[in-house]
Amino acid sequence: MNFHPATQILSWVLLVVTMQAMSLMSLLAVSSLVMLSAFVMSRHGFIQLLRRTRWIMFSLLLIYAYSTPGQPLSESLGIFSPSHEGLLDGVLQLTRLLAALAGLAILLGNLHRQQLIAGLYTLFAPLQWIGLSRNRFAVRLALTLHYAEVAMLRGPNNRQDSLGTLFDRRVDEQSGTYIELPECRFVINDALMIAAIILLFAVTM
């Protein structure tokens, strides 16, 4: 079943927002389903995201465990013990982050670069109402993704030059870059998908 790229991106954003309001049992059920889907549909991408964010997740857990006041987890450790409440909050936030990464892995696995840009191009249509150009945004995003890939493939000595190019405004103006986006149409499946996510949000509030 195919969905418009904008629908897939919006669904991921709504899912991340919805998980912030979920009860413990609902969060565990939804996050388990999303992570299981990620392992089935985009295992390699999900594992890569986990590797790149492992220290962020570990730091997040420590910050919550030691900065949240509450009952010490171990009385023998005294002030050096993490709190029971903090550890629980840290696990909840970690669960939300894991589910968000799982959803992102599925999203990036389903959409190639041009589809991703096309989806964001559609979602940023309201920018035109305030006088901003979504065409320039799409070109800048395409160049950013391109040079980010180049920076990852190059060695450490050349990576700084590639990253510096990302923020050079002359790249858009002098390179003559244009992008061709795939033509996508909204269908009934897109409306059903968004309605399902909104209904899930309403139920968990």
The rounded distance between the terminal residues' Cα atoms is 29 Å
The computed structural class is mainly alpha
The number of distinct β-strands equals 0
Strand content: under 5%
Helix content bin = over 70%
User: What's the main sheet like?
Assistant: none
List the helices and strands in order: HHHHHHHHH
**General shape:** elongated
Mean of all residue-level pLDDT scores: 77
Q: Unreliable runs, pLDDT <50, ≥5 residues?
A: 165-175
What number of domains? 1
Number of helices: 9
Work out the radius of gyration. Answer: 21 Å
How would you summarize this macromolecular structure in one to three sentences?
The protein has 205 residues and is mainly α.
SSE topology:
Layout: H1 5-19, H2 24-41, H3 43-67, H4 84-110, H5 113-123, H6 134-153, H7 156-166, H8 170-175, H9 188-204
Helix pairs in contact: 1-4, 1-5, 1-9, 2-3, 2-4, 3-4, 5-6, 6-7
